[in-house]
Amino acid sequence: MCASHQYIMACRHRRAREMLVKTAVSMEEVARQCGFVNSSHFSTSFKQMEGLLPLAFRQAHLRLG
Question: What is the pTM (predicted TM-score) of this model?
């Protein structure tokens, strides 16, 4: 992966993390607003980068919050 692609993905994931913690929008909407092709691609990419599926990430932060 080239550095520019890594930067773009890091930005998308940062925005997704914010949305998952601060909003109640659907996974499909998070994926769309963060520039992913679909929610399946978003979930796969998120798990690779964060170690958790998006829903598990959201639920973990709701318990902590």
Answer: 0.89
